[in-house]
Amino acid sequence: MDKTGDAKRKEFLKLAEKAAGCRLCPAMEDRTAVLSELNGSLGPRVFFVAEAPGRQGADRTRRPFWGDKSGQNFQQMLDSIGLRREEIFITNTVLCSPRSETGANRKPSNKEIKTCAGFLAATIALIDPKIIVTLGTVALEALKSIEYHQITLKLGVGRIYRWNGRFLIPLYHPSPQTIASHRRLPEQLADFRAVAEAMEKGL
Question: How many domains are there within the chain?
Answer without folding.
Answer: 1
